[in-house]
From TrEMBL:
Keywords: Hydrolase. It comes from Ramlibacter terrae. It holds the Pfam family Glyco_hydro_2_N. PANTHER family: BETA-GALACTOSIDASE, HYDROLASE. This is Glycoside hydrolase family 2. Residues 13-113 form the Glycosyl hydrolases family 2 sugar binding domain. Belongs to the glycosyl hydrolase 2 family. One of its GO terms (molecular function) is hydrolase activity. The keyword Transmembrane helix does not apply.
Amino acid sequence: MSLNGTWRFRFDEEAVISGPGQIPDWPLEITVPYPPEAKASGIGDRGFHKVCWYQRDFEIAPGPGRVILHFGAVDYAARVWVNGHLAVTHEGGHTPFSADITELLDADGRQTVTLRAEDDPHELSKPRGKQDWQLEPHSIWYPRTTGIWQTVWVERVARTYIDKIRWTPRLEGFAIGVEARLKGPDPGDLSLELELKHGDRLLARDRYRVVDGEVDRFVVLSDPGIDDFRNELLWSPERPTLLDATLRLWQDGQVIDEVRSYTALRSANVLRDRFMLNGRPYVLRMVLDQGYWPDTLLAAPDDDALRRDVELAKAMGFNGVRKHQKIEDPRYLYWADKLGLLVWEEMPSAYRFTRSAIQRTIREWTEALDRDYSHPCIIVWVPFNESWGVPELPSVQAHRHAVEALYHLTKTLDPTRAVIGNDGWESSATDIVGIHDYDCNLEHIRQRYGPEVEPEQLFDRRRPGGKLLTLDGYPHQGQPIMLTEFGGIAFRAHAEEGVKKIWGYTAVDDADTFAKLYEQLLETVIHTALFSGFCYTQFSDTFQEANGLLYADRTPKIPLERIRQVTAQSRTYIPGGV
């Protein structure tokens, strides 16, 4: 049952209220899941507020099984009470949490949930991504998002139930790994049935004994011989084939829980200087996506808006997006899985280097990895961007250790995907060397990255953005080189309402000039043999950043087909390459 909608609301300016019983009144109402800074919330207050409170009533009667309360994301630190009893606490503004509230329910079926969200607007040692710490958005930072900004819901489950599922495709041998974790008492004689289908075709139906509350198996799809239909099952942006899964928990001959899920057969890895998708070299044509909307900020207006963003990226000829400084709503990842769009997932940055900042980053990043591991669309993890939060990488060893630690931790928790330790420059531990270069002078781009430039020369002499591309002691070891931020072409005359000064790396005054510069820049980058992929900045205008291919409301600045023709153009043949 969704708990989105109208909640009672109040700010706690002095942070003096410690529990629901101390709240004197509720002067405001808010529409969840939109944050109070957003117009869609009904409040639209973008001032500095450290603490805010939410409350609403709902009805669910105590009964068989357990009742679980879920929050998709609350920024930043949350405390939740049910009927006046503390149910759960959580820290981290981009990851989900839940609580078993069965023992806290009132017998009459009428329940009250209260939430306290603390989000110090000036705190720079917590992962905050693009949320500004100044009153008015400046440079490349945007309005803050406080409190609830993803869906809230409650569900009833069995006493013993399937709590988590994790899928791992292994293309070699056409195998799919399934990990299932149960919660609740073990009544004995538990088994888990797995059914995998592609459309009406049954691929597998297996049943496994539950041991210590879990099942961990690989399912091998049978080899039919020379006419191997299994290649038709491979997932890619061009053919996003999903496999439907049903899991049933059996006990004493009865199904006591059943869940539906999906997975996909696909591999994503790096081989020498190329990115590989399903065992073949694959050119990444990506666009940087901040994931903001004018009236709802970090929160999506609705599910249709998330689907539309995936569709628009594909319509412009891109096969992937780099979700920049945001752990996106999982519904976006669902649509990327279903419609076929690759995703780089990036950790929102803190902006101070402290022990607390690193501890917070590690905790929230591991939660994000756990939440999103099973999405086939995700192909790359990015713990750090442009040395944000680790500004002294060339000179301070502790900063280097932080990047290397997050790189190796990510590879430990997910050895199946590529990891970029620090995207943009000052690379050390990384599977892909990402370069950020916003120079729109085509001749400069050719001189820096053209066919006469050897990689060794690039790393020894070139400093896009005034930064070293690789740190001393970490020479280029043949990894793929990608231009992971470039472009940033802004319209001078087209700023969002209320924006006093637009931001862009290159500014133009009319659509035709914009289109021609985009075409020339993309043609230059696409046909540069050194690059095995690129990421253009950016998908849509975002507040003062008027450098999107789309306006903030997702209206195209130039026809989508014109963008697509240049973005998806065939690459010049490169001997031995793609």
